[in-house]
Amino acid sequence: MRCAYLTKTANQRLVWVLLDYAFFLQFGFRAPKVEKLPCGKPVFAGCMGVHFSVSHTKGCVMVVLSDSPCGCDIELSRVVPEGMLSKVSSVEERQSFTPLEIWTLKESAVKLAGEVSDGDVYQFMADTRFERVGRKLILRGLDNVQAITTLHGNYQVAMLFEGKGMLPNLIEIGERTLFEYGRCADVGC
User: Fold this and answer.
1) What does 45-80 look like in DSSP terms, one character per residue?
2) What is the helix (H) or strand (E) element at residue 126, kind and residue range?
3) Of 4, 90, 132, 177, which is most buried by a Cβ count within 10 Å?
4) How far apart are CA 159 and CA 157, in angstroms?
């Protein structure tokens, strides 16, 4: 598993360049074409053994690669409106987690699932419950899911993975490295 994020400059193109870069670092060749499943979840075409999740927020993009289904979210530190928070979380969750931890964990769960029944994302988030047991995060009802949430600088990060493998460390990649890789990847350097 590999996780990376880019600080300062972020846009939608960079998240896909970062995905290609992370794939290249992991496997030594360019990432396969990305296609969307009928539910809208992006996957690698013809490469079902490698899973990924992407997220971006103001000033930062994030990519997670895994050998099992995964979901990630990154958010610039901000206030989550109480009305929204109470709509997607339980009282117990609000006592155990910060508002932004809750939000990023719930967003990561949506991405891990890939498809939400009836298309009601907020109901799915409300039904998805997390608890903290010591230093471990538990997704109730899914013993095979591992979760991480951490504050990295001004960014709240959450990642979910199916399976019992090792959880990744965050790897910071500067935008200069990524821009150079993107330029070379585009022209075949």
Assistant:
1) TT-TT-EEEEEEETTEEEEEEESS-EEEEEEES-PP
2) helix 121-127
3) 4
4) 7
- How far apart, in Å, are the Cα atoms of 113 and each of 41, 57, 149, 170? 9, 21, 18, 22
What does the chain come to in residues? 189
Neighbours of 95 (CB within 10 A): 8
Nearest to 78 by CA among 94, 102, 95: 102
Backbone angles phi, psi at 117, to 5 degrees: -60, 140
More confident residue, 60 or 44: 44
For 175-189, letters b (16+ CB in 10 Å) and e give: beebeebbeeeeeee
pLDDT band with cut points at 50, 70 and 90 for residue 187: very low
pTM of the model: 0.85
Q: What is the rounded radius of gyration, in angstroms, for the C-alpha atoms of the chain? A: 16
H/E stretch holding 122 reads helix 121-127
98 closest CA partner among 112, 84, 80: 80
